Each structure stands twice: as C-alpha cells, then as structure tokens.
C-alpha cells in the first residue's frame, strides 16, 4: 500500500493530463461485498486474492445496532453457517474474512452500517466505539474533544474492529507502543451460545479477564467484536523531520533511533544506498504550527496517470529493463526529498520541522474521500492501476540487524536489482513494543514492509522475482520473522503457529468461545495454522508455495528453481537464458551469470 512512485510520472505528465477532456467523475472505492441474483462476492481493495479465486457467499447482513449484530450471530449459530465479519473497508490481503465453503453454507456480517456510537469519557481518558466506526471518524471525534489517540496505522482506511483484530500498528517503542491493540482497555465480543441463551451472547472483557489477551488480536476467529474501548491522552502536537543520508550504519543504529524518537521510523532505499530517518516526537499543544501529513501514496491521483504508470512498469518488467526501473527509482527519491513525502506546513511543504496536531499527523488516506474528477486511489482494480505484493515481516529487535546485513550482501552483488522495490517505497521500517496479546509479538520488535510488482496473470514470472523471494525467505525462515496477519503472500505463514509461544492458549480460548468453529474456514485455517497447499505447476510464482521442482516456477519461460545466492537454503525462481542440464540439485551453483 505504500506505493507512491506515480508522483514522479505525474510531474512529467501534469500539463498533458490537464488538457484531457474527460467526463469521468471521482472514483471512490467500491464496497467490498457486491451481490447479484447468484449471491455475493467478497473482494479486497486490490480486487484479487492471493490465490486469485473468488470468495463467494450466499448472503450478507448489515446490522445497525449491537442487538442486531447479536441476532445475526445467533442466526448463523442456529443454522450452522460458517460466518465471517467484514467492514466498510477491505484491506486484508490474505483471505481471513472469507467464510466460503464447498457446500455453500456460509454468510457474511458487515459492520458498514454499525457505526453510530462514539462515547468519549474525558474524565477517564477513554473512548468506546462501535466496531464499524472508521479510524478517521474516531480520530476527528477525539481531537475535537481535546484528546488524542496515541497509536494508529499509517493507512486510515480501516474500521476500529478490523484494525484491532489484525494487529494494525503505527511505530513506537515508547509508552504502550505503536500497536493499537495495546491501547485497548475494554472490548465486547459476540459469541455463539446455547439455545437457552438465545444462540448468541455478548461477552464484555477487561484487561483483568483471563481471555482478554486472546481477544485483543483475534483475527475474527473468536466471534464478532461489537464495542472497543481505547485509552486516550490529552491532545498534543508532533514535530516531524526527515534526514536522507547514507545507509552505511542502519543495521547498527536502528535501536538508538527508535529509543530517541517517540514515533521513529526509517525508510531504506537499498539500490540508492540511502536511508531516510524520521525524527518524530510530540511537542506541546501550544507549539507553533498547523501542519499535516498526507502520505503521497495515499493521496487521490489521476486515473490516467495511474494507468500509464502501470503500463510503463509492465513494459519495463516484460523487457527486463533494469535501466528503466533504476531511472524511475532515482527520480522518485529526488521528488520525495523535495516534497517531504507528503508533509505540509500549510498548503505546501516549506521546510522542516513540520509541526501539527496528532490527529492530522498520525494517519492518512485522502484518496478514500476525494471528490476530484478523474481521480482515485492508485491501486483501484477498476482502472488497471498499480498492482503489487506487500510483504510485512515482524522481527525480534535483536535479529533485525543481521537481516539487514544479509540483505546488503544480496544487494551488493548487483545493486540495480533492488531498483524495483525503490520505485515503490523501499523498505519501510517501524517499531512496536512487546505485547501480552497471544497472537502478538512477545518481544520488542522491528516491522519491515516492502512492495513489489505483481503480474497481471498468475503464471507470468516477474523480472528479478528471485531477489524478492530470497529476501522473503531470509525474513520468515532464516530469521524467524512473524508475518503481519493482514498482509503477505501465503508462503509467509508456513508453520506460523510455531512462532507464537502463546498460540495454544489462543486455540484453547477459541475452543471455549466457538466450539463449533463457526468463525473458522478453510481460508483462515490456511493462514493461522500455516498450512501449505498442494504444489502445482507455477505455484511459486505468486507465493502459493516454495519451489522444490522447476515446474513450480516457469521453465517454459526460462525460470527455474534455484538455491538462494546469500541464503543458500532458500529456493527461488530464477531466470536463466539456458535450461539446466538436469533437475534441481541443492548443490547446483548460483547462476551468477544470469543474476
């Protein structure tokens, strides 16, 4: 989602685009559930799931009150239906929200219309909200009351129930940390119940309750979150500046950076040997400044530009053009420095630091609401715009430096191979604290996000895809990073349950609250229990498997299963101009001539 390289081309094409006479109106995001006479389909915001298969359900219901929400769960329980919850938004990349079964006995509960209540308790610095409330609406309400929500993800297109369910986070090692679920002080959960209890009941939880740590990050597997109570602080401002500098010491100073700045992050552009350190601390409310942070990739932008950018990237990828990608990456980095990645002192960016209220600095997503003609979010699937993977790995803080060192070794073999990720947003590095949540990280951690090109067709190999497969496997298998529950390709979740020391405690709570597994599905089980699917021809091309045979790649197009170049245990699909003389052997060289 952190893809905003379209801005570079926008600057080149702005005069041309302004002269086009087109009657298309602003294209706001479509609802995630769309129905016709044959039933309903659930989509994520990219329009395509990881396996490219539809999520079909018979029907969807839209409760408006907590009691209607309870009745919907009761109906599913009484009729033995598989059930999942979806909100007004749908930005989860894995199929966690898909209840579909081969027998068709499934339904969706949408919280899109369950969004009326925001109760602010100023005396006790807390707010209680309906789970369907959008993040931006919540932030605006608490700021208006003279308070601030400390933690929030960088993307605001999420509901409160959805963001706490999947472990959404910003960046901070200070205080309670950057994960929103660690700011929860109360939660109501609707779970299946006996017939004598009306087939569903509301369970109200507080931190003292035994199952609270299971419910904080529940992935929608325990029941339906109906209310969330979050802690607040008196309203404050933030002061932000970026320092673009050499990346030579990043693996040695990331901890110091996180400890020095409350909302620190780092963006690393490996092909350009550049790191952008974010200096971000709170300042008093009376500090001068009314700045905003509108992250460039989340701003509404021209449909024509988004389409042309995607077409250009496809041409470069199909033509194996490193030069084109590296030129674009260099131009992009220059623009980012010029406009401070979306920071504005007022109407525009005029210089560092940018000081503004917490509510205007902590999250962004203006493409969700723009009324400008001919604009949309850059990844809207209706326009053939940006289409990419998003890998997000959560490392124990002590292991992250060694991961960076290995990535640098891979980068140094041929730096231009990393231009593809720098076209997007490089490696975004954030910080989250240890949590008591059973499906959260048990130690202070470092989170890395990186985006990269995805082909239109599942069986089309990608230029230099072996590089990103090796980085992916370095993260999740050599260094044992945990995958973000709402992102990643399927292979990232292999054996994920072994990475959580409290996983069995979570499973025990699930058996207690949902003994009939109404809130489980084959799709959520695949993610949560780290199951690898059947290996088929081409399955490694989109991360549905790790290759072990050439047929899992695309030998007909010159992509064969090979060992990693730095992480030798990795198995990646690498291009070779000539076919191998024999089937894959684990000792079969590294094909450096084709790297």
UniProtKB/TrEMBL annotation:
Annotated EC: 1.1.3.8
UniProt-listed Pfam families: ALO (PF04030), FAD_binding_4 (PF01565), GULLO2-like_3rd (PF22906)
Listed transmembrane segments: none
GO cellular component terms given for this protein: membrane
Pathway annotation: Cofactor biosynthesis; L-ascorbate biosynthesis
UniProt cofactor(s): FAD
Start-end of Low complexity biased regions: 584-595
Protein keywords: Ascorbate biosynthesis, FAD, Flavoprotein, Oxidoreductase, Signal
InterPro entries in alphabetical order: ALO_C, FAD-bd_PCMH, FAD-bd_PCMH-like_sf, FAD-bd_PCMH_sub2, FAD-linked_Oxidoreductases_BP, GULLO2-like_C, GULO_Plant, Oxid_FAD_bind_N
GO MF annotation: an example: L-gulonolactone oxidase activity
Signal peptide: 1-17
Domain FAD-binding PCMH-type per the UniProt entry, residue ranges: 53-235
UniProt region (Disordered), positions on chain: 576-595
UniProt GO BP: L-ascorbic acid biosynthetic process
Catalytic activity: L-gulono-1,4-lactone + O2 = L-ascorbate + H2O2 + H(+)
Top-rank lineage group of the source organism: Eukaryota
NCBIfam families reported in the protein's UniProt record: pln_FAD_oxido
Protein family per UniProt: Belongs to the oxygen-dependent FAD-linked oxidoreductase family.
Protein name: L-gulonolactone oxidase
Organism whose genome encodes this protein: Prunus armeniaca
């Amino acid at each position: 989602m952190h893809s905003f390289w379209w801005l570079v081309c926008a600057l080149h094409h702005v005069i041309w685009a302004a002269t086009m006479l087109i009657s298309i109106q602003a294209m706001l995001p479509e609802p995630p559930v769309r129905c016709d006479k044959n039933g309903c389909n659930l989509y994520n915001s990219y329009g395509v799931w990881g396996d490219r298969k539809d999520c079909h359900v018979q029907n969807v219901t839209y409760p408006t009150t907590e009691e209607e929400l309870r009745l919907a769960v009761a109906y599913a329980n009484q009729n033995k239906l598989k059930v999942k919850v979806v909100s007004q938004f749908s930005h989860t990349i894995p199929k966690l929200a898909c209840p579909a079964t081969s027998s068709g006995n499934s339904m969706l509960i949408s919280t899109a219309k369950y969004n009326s209540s925001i109760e602010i308790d100023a005396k006790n610095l807390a707010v209680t909200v309906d789970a369907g409330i959008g993040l931006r609406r919540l932030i605006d309400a608490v700021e208006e009351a003279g308070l601030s929500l400390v933690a929030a993800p960088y993307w605001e297109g999420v509901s409160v129930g959805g963001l706490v369910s999947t472990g959404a986070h910003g960046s901070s090692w200070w205080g309670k940390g950057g994960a929103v679920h660690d700011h929860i002080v109360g939660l109501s959960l609707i779970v299946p119940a006996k017939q004598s209890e009306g087939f569903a009941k509301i369970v109200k939880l507080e931190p003292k309750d035994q199952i609270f740590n299971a419910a904080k990050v529940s992935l929608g597997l325990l029941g339906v979150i109906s209310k969330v109570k979050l802690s607040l602080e008196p309203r404050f401002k933030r002061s932000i500046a970026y320092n673009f500098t050499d990346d030579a010491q990043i693996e040695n100073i990331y901890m110091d950076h996180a400890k020095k700045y409350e909302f620190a992050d780092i963006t690393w552009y490996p092909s350009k040997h550049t790191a952008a350190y974010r200096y971000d601390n709170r300042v008093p409310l009376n500090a001068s400044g009314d700045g905003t942070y509108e992250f460039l990739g989340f701003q509404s932008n021209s449909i024509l530009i988004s389409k042309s950018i995607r077409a250009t990237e496809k041409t470069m990828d199909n033509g194996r053009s490193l030069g084109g990608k590296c030129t674009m990456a260099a131009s992009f980095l220059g623009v980012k420095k010029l406009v401070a990645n979306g920071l504005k002192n007022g109407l525009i960016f005029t210089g560092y630091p940018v000081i503004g209220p917490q509510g205007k600095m902590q999250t962004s997503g203006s493409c969700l609401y723009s009324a400008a003609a001919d604009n949309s979010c850059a990844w809207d699937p209706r326009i053939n715009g940006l289409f990419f993977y998003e890998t997000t790995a959560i490392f124990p803080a002590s292991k992250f430096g060694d991961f960076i060192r290995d990535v640098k070794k891979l980068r140094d073999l041929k730096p231009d191979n990393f231009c593809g990720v720098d076209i997007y947003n490089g490696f975004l590095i954030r910080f989250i604290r240890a949590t008591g949540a059973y499906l959260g990280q048990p130690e202070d951690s470092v989170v890395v996000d990186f985006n990269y090109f995805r082909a239109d067709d599942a069986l089309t190999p990608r230029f230099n895809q072996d590089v990103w497969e090796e980085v992916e496997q370095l993260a999740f298998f050599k260094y044992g990073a945990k995958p973000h529950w709402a992102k990643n390709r399927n292979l990232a979740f292999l054996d994920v349950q072994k990475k959580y020391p409290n996983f069995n405690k979570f499973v025990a709570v699930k058996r207690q609250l949902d003994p009939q597994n109404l809130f489980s599905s084959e799709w959520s089980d695949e993610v949560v229990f780290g199951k690898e699917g059947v290996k088929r021809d081409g399955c490694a091309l989109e991360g549905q498997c790790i290759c072990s045979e050439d047929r899992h790649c695309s030998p007909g197009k010159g992509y064969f299963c090979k060992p990693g170049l730095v992480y030798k245990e990795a198995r990646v699909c690498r291009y070779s101009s000539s076919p191998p003389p024999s089937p894959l052997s684990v000792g079969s060289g590294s094909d450096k001539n084709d790297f």
